Amino acid sequence: MPVAVFASATDDPAQWLPALREAIPALEVRVWPEIGDPAEIDYAIVWKPPAGMLAGLPNLKVIYSLGAGIDTMLRDPTLPAEVPLVRMVDLSLSEGMVEFVAEQVLAIHRQARTYRAQQAAGVWEQHDQRLARDVTIGILGLGTLGSAAARALRALNFQVAGWSRTPKAIAGVTTFHGAAGLDAFLARSEILVCLLPATPATEGILNIGLLRKLKRDGALGGACLINAGRGALQVDADIVAALDEGSLAAATLDVFPAEPLPRESPLWEHPQVTITPHNAASSVPHALVDYVLNQITLYERGEALENIVDRTAGY
Ligand code: NDP
Ligand code: OXD
Question: Which of 1, 21, 230, 284 would suit a FRET pair with 96, their CA atoms being 20 to 30 Å apart?
Fold first, then answer.
């Protein structure tokens, strides 16, 4: 019987094990650090495993990440280079991210912050309603999650553009790519949604220089940022500075360079900032075990694995 080790920095094994054991009865699952003989482990099912852990499993065949972003794992210099790393790509994650992005875009578009403040003050006052067709949204990253968000925002009739590393074609979405396409993309984006992975090329991309290039004279009367990609993409101090100087009108942040966001961060108290605790799209055990099951089945049958991380690209 093949043996898997389960290790997660944030997930409770008690939530995963029954689902894994029910879906894959022919798999023995051991929970880190009680793994018995490391040489018996065939598969690792992990989220942010301890550095060095995977290197200690000499017969590991495949590493399955419980998350879509594998930047933390790639930062471990001991990560076995010869073992395929499969990242999580699942409709449940895409649906969660689409809901989050749509929720936050609509909150900006429909002036939710203003109406909440008015309610708190007992004020009855209507403000002009903008039309989605007049609002321009730019999505950084047009992969699994970014393209799903782009399609959903198009369905709501926003003007949507996207930026990626390589050229893309998505019906109804204006696409840009590479360094040469970035400024034109930013210049037309009033709401910037970031769904990029954290790589050496994207780290710190959400800095004051970039934020100042966003469109401020559109239907919303200001530029807004939504980052649900990774905290390493953003420079927190630059976001505060951009808000304070007016380059940004609002920011919604689900991810941070340091998580949990330290209590002393000025972002917590900033009136134009919305904070969520890195839960834009969470891995839900019963929705994701089928993915792991399919991947293990593919491997056991000698078929090609899906969604193997390209370690040279870093995502
Ligand atoms: P994908 O790998 O499918 O997509 C990544 C996209 O980013 C691709 O379009 C890629 O372009 C683009 N990209 C990468 N590097 C660059 C670059 N240097 N310049 C321009 N574009 C670039 O990832 P997913 O859509 O599945 O996930 C995206 C990220 O979302 C994850 O890496 C993770 O960090 C984050 N995430 C956050 C969650 C949350 O709860 N907050 C939940 C899940 C994921 P190309 O296609 O041309 O290569
Ligand atoms: C992920 C995440 O990458 O939850 O899946 O951040």
Answer: 21
